[in-house]
Amino acid sequence: MTNYSFIIVVKLLVIFLIFVSPKEILAFYDRFGGYAEEPIGPSSPYEVLMSPSLEAAPMPTQTTLLSAFEKTWEAACNHQGKSKFYVPGGKFLVGAIQFKGPCRTESTMEVEITGDLIAPTSIKAFPSNQWISFSNLNDIFLYGSTNLEGGGEVEAWKSCKKSKCDLVTSLILANVSNAIIKNISLSNSKGFHFRLQSSRNVTVYNVSISSPWDSPNTDGIHVHSSSFINITNSTIGVGDDCVSISTGSLDVLVSGTRCGPGHGFSIGSLGKVKNEEEVRRIKVQNCTVNGAENGVRIKTWPSSPPSQASDITFDDILMINVSNPIFIDQEYCPSGSCDTTSASLVKLSNIEFKNIRGTYISDFGVNLRCSSVAACENITLIDVNLNGSKTLKEKLQQEKFSTTGRLNGLAVFNSTFN
Length: 418
Prior knowledge:
The chain is mainly beta. The chain has three domains: 1-82, no CATH class; 89-240, Single-stranded right-handed beta-helix, Pectin lyase-like (Pectate Lyase C-like, 3 Solenoid); 254-418, no CATH class. It is 8% helix and 50% strand. It is built from four helices and 34 strands. The protein has helices spanning 52-55, 62-78, 156-162, 392-397, and strands at residues 5-11, 14-20, 25-30, 34-39, 82-87, 91-93, 97-100, 109-113, 116-118, 130-143, 147-149, 169-182, 185-187, 194-197, 200-205, 208-210, 221-224, 227-232, 235-237, 243-245, 250-255, 258-259, 265-270, 279-290, 296-300, 307-322, 326-329, 346-360, 364-369, 376-382, 385-388, 399-404, 407-413, 416-417. The protein is elongated.
């Protein structure tokens, strides 16, 4: 059977499918002529041809452009050879779109997005809580110089501050395995910027995420029910958690990543609903937190049902003027109106804070606010050196190290809190 190299290009309404075989074929789709194939002369496997008449076509509507993306994805996903989905340079206004698998490709499905994708500003334009999603896929490589612009400042953030937030996540990977996400940017999402859900073996590398410090619920990367996740060499500055790792997540590594502004690197929140899956083997290392509301944090709801989080390590973290650099908060209640009639039943154990250094501006350098019922167990601090950056008078009033609730097995080695 002949192997084909397959590339797909979206340019306004023009979609080119280039097949490389002993006889090269150019296939394209446009709104004027539909889908067609014709022989072309010798060319590179990745040469893109643009018809002048089509280049001059009017700007497509959002609906038409969505249709073009969907048709292109369907063709790429169903191709049995090598396949690549490519969006060239430019700016594209794109509504909610789902790239669904499984695909029939024989090797890694490449998705290269060079142009910037811009979301509609109205929340009503989204039938669900997602903008761009990839689902039910195995072996995918998503990369490019694109920026996914969410436009949350126009409507979503304002409505969120007045009432319950209608969260629309900019990019979702759901039930995806063996994936690499590299060199893309996301900005001003209406809700979470990037969510990994029920996914496995995913590497996120050199991703840039940004929104203002006061943009509500704009987590940078949220990991939920996923395993073997590697987030590395990325830069995140948002209005909520830079990285949040939630229920059912196992074997997650965050490294070489800068956070700020934002709410730091967080485990949780945990314990909001019954029968939550455990969180285990999480490591955050070689990271910097600059000007964030929290540094490294574990948060669970009060009056929460039983669950557990264990084997968590925060190692080699530089804090620069951070509030709450080390924070276990088992009374997490951002709204201020939670049920506090009983303590959190989320069990936290085997947690290590190692080589954490820098400056803080809050009342506490270390705040271990544990449950009064489900005791924190085996909490270790090694080589933790934190300095308050307030005036001398204010420093005298600071509590450097605070513990509340039940705590079984606290060890502190070679650490200073000034």
